[in-house]
Fold each of these.
Amino acid sequence: MKTKQKQHDNYGVDVRLLRSMAEELRLPLLQIARQAELANMGTVDGQPNIRVIEATSEAAIRLVDSYLFSTQVLLGQQSLPLEPTSVTATMYDTSQYLHKLAKIYDCDIDVAVRGKCGLVMANAKGLQAALTSLAYAFIGSSMRSGKQRIVLTAMRQGQGIRAGVMTNASIEKTTLSKARMLYGKAHQPASSVTHKSGAGIYVADALFKSMESELQVVQQKSRSGLMATMLPSYQTALFN
């Protein structure tokens, strides 16, 4: 009975996330369609921007891949065994994936690793999918003033290591809890974080939970963001 109930709950999560994903993908598909329309017009001033097509399509595909991966995990079709994983290497790989998209939105994307973070107990594929989805949700969000800056960040926090995405936009402490409550009920449940549907945040949230962690709002002097705390691996602990 409990197994059936869990499956029912997971399918409910799956449907809400699918709706959010559909809304999230609408904009990049419209951008690609617009560029195709310009190409068909064949005018000098209406040449398609290949960079826009390439970056938006790549980002959309990665978000879909992350969504499919997270639903497989939620439905028990894919496991996320925890193993020593380099959070630094994962963040640099993620920043490379998102560089083209960030450039189109005139957004800076950087990596900041504070202190000796070493290896964390996570799933390499799950961690990369979570960070990619999370950063995607932030890219292009409206700024009240100045240029948007997104920083994939890792730092020591007590006995653990925090990893996630920080930005120069303001995020309130209650933003994430409110977004979780509105998940599947509002068009933009995380409107204070992103102008998109927030699918990337929900994908990341689900993946971090599957890796025995959880997203939290983190606030610093001039930045705020969403981060999860993971345990350092035993190998790392031996040398610290």
Amino acid sequence: MAAKKNNGYLNFNLGWLESKAVELRTYVDDHPIETLRDRTDLRQTQNGGMVTVVVASVEKQVRSIRETLKDHAQITEAIGKLREKEAEEMGIGSAFPQQSSYIEIELGWLELQVQQLQAYIDHNPVDKLKDRKVQKTNSRGNSYDVNAATIEDQIRSIRETLKDNILLVEAINKLYKKEKDRRNLRGGSRPNLLMEDEA
């Protein structure tokens, strides 16, 4: 009789990966796109004075969130594959029931984030964009403007957000299809696709 494989490393790796997915999710949840503002900081000049600089424009923060969402979708898919492998190695055959609920929860959350990206685009119509400045006051009490984002920076952010939105919707639909196939094998109900053709 063959000895059963030790799943210790796979279980550890899966647990670690899930904890990292939670960290990424928390980062996105803690930084809703509609609340983002240009982040500034004081930096010392060569002459010893202080100057305000934009350390993270809204566009830079949105890019970080978009990239995090794309990575999260890939990690969710990897977790699903690892759970399937774990089930196979344990001789269960089909994946654990909690795999489906985990993936469905993550897909629901990703859908909400896609809606936030779409709201960001809707709230920044390209024909209404202007160079964005942040007003600061120096140590002498004088006010001055700091460039936060040019029109071109903002348009690039909108363009990249549109492309990433399409990629995310495709990734979500791919995961939904895999989940649908899994459910069909078990005789369960079918999850909804984001951009499903209405027939």
